[in-house]
Design brief:
Shape: globular
Strand content: under 5%
Largest sheet: 2 strands, antiparallel
Number of strands: 4
Distance between the termini: 33 Å
CATH superfamily of the largest domain: Hypothetical protein af1432
CATH class of the largest domain: Mainly Alpha
Structural class: mainly alpha
Oligomer: single chain
CATH architecture of the largest domain: Orthogonal Bundle
Number of helices: 20
Order of helices and strands: HEEHHHHHHHHHHEEHHHHHHHHH
Helix content: 55-70%
Length: 383
């Protein structure tokens, strides 16, 4: 296997995280959240609040930890904190799962990613402790900002804050503790930086309900834009170094690039739509959504989205290439996926997708083009 073969094998294995269900629900209570969506959401929390908790933290490393921290649940599953569990047995199983999953990567990356995962688990470094705080805190507000409240989930939050993993939150992140306390008491939230971002963090939860044309691996259902964004951020983490671009910048672009779909929806590349109208809708969505954030976070995060859209830097071009590369990768693993649904030809893929992949990552198009062509050739032979 080539280096890229190994990297793609890891990334497709990681796609299975979209099928792991958590105890938490979406804020609208329509269904349970999956672990890929959760990993995307906590990464956004780190972007916004990492330096509030620890000004000296390496936020890029913290985000990387949060993108990979739950990959072991592909094998071990999610373990709700309120259930009686043999945590030593879970830890042993998770370490074995981490060995298998990260060893799919090339040797140099396998060691780095496995080390990063174990650093998170040990929680002995400042960056790992920060990642743990965010991973502990976000589910609390996933419960407290839900409408309507689930009484059983609220009871778990109360216990968690008093005697559970979040019992030291008042010391580790006082703003989070006082905001949670106010919500639990039915009182107005305090005027702190976290409370001023909750409308944004809650609104983007709706991205988990924006369906795309692409299917998840195995073809069980359509992928949503939140888990898609997580998958692309993970791709950036794995592939950006070989592209000689800033992985941290590309990861942030991937985390926020589809946030506007909360308002504007997803427009499949092979569907019929008005690009000018879509652009106007997305600009209006960016104005509203990023405008929910206080300064300077609103301008900072909007600038990341604007740089992606402008496509003027090496990082943006690579990010755009990843955004075009992932759907054909998924289609090849789901019997054609959206290509079949939209009656797509190889020439259409080459024109609308291949050229854009090649613009920022020509080696990715060189890797996948023969497979795409082979798929359409084999499909034509059956008709």
């Amino acid at each position: 296997m080539t280096r890229l073969d190994q990297q793609i094998a890891f990334l497709m294995e990681a796609d299975k995280l979209k099928q792991v269900t958590r105890a938490n629900t979406l804020l609208d209570q329509s269904r349970q959240e999956n672990t890929a969506e959760h990993s995307w959401h906590v990464a956004i929390w780190a972007v916004l609040h990492g330096h509030d908790i620890d000004p000296a933290a390496d936020i890029g490393r913290v985000i990387a930890m949060l993108l990979i921290h739950d990959l072991v649940e592909i094998e071990v599953g999610d373990h709700p904190i309120h259930l009686v569990t043999d945590w030593d047995a879970v830890a042993k199983a998770e370490d074995a799962a981490a060995e298998r999953i990260f060893r799919l990567l090339p040797e140099d990356q396998a060691g780095v990613f496995l080390g990063l995962w174990r650093e998170f688990e040990a929680a002995e470094t400042p960056d790992a402790r920060l990642a743990k705080i965010i991973d502990t805190t976000q589910p609390i507000f996933q419960v407290l900002r839900a409408e309507p409240w689930d009484p059983s989930h609220v009871a778990i939050v109360r216990e968690n804050l008093s005697t559970g993993r979040a019992r030291n939150l008042a010391r580790r992140w006082p703003e989070a503790a006082e905001t949670a306390k106010a919500l639990l008491a039915g009182q107005p939230t305090p005027d702190n930086r976290l409370a001023r971002t909750l409308d944004f963090l809650s609104d983007i939860d709706r991205l988990k309900s924006v369906d795309r044309a692409t299917l998840i691996s195995g073809g069980a259902r359509r992928e949503n834009s939140a888990e898609h964004s997580w998958h692309l951020a993970l791709m950036a983490l794995v592939l950006a170094t070989d592209a000689k671009v800033s992985a941290a910048e590309v990861v942030r672009m991937m985390l926020v690039h589809d946030i506007v779909e909360v308002d504007a929806g997803d427009n499949p590349i092979f569907a019929s739509y008005d690009p000018a109208d879509m652009a106007m809708q997305e600009l209006a969505a960016a104005d509203r959504l990023f405008g929910l954030l206080p300064a300077p976070l609103n301008a900072d995060l909007r600038a990341v989205w604007d740089r992606f859209e402008a496509n003027a830097t090496a990082e943006a071009r690579f990010a755009k290439s990843l955004d075009r590369f992932q759907p054909p990768l998924m289609n090849l693993n789901t019997g054609g996926g959206s290509w079949v649904e939209y009656n797509v030809t190889f020439d259409m893929v080459a024109e609308r997708v291949g050229a854009k992949i090649a613009s920022g990552a020509p080696w990715l198009w060189a890797w996948i083009e023969p497979q795409v062509e082979g798929f359409f050739r084999e499909r034509a032979s059956r008709t």
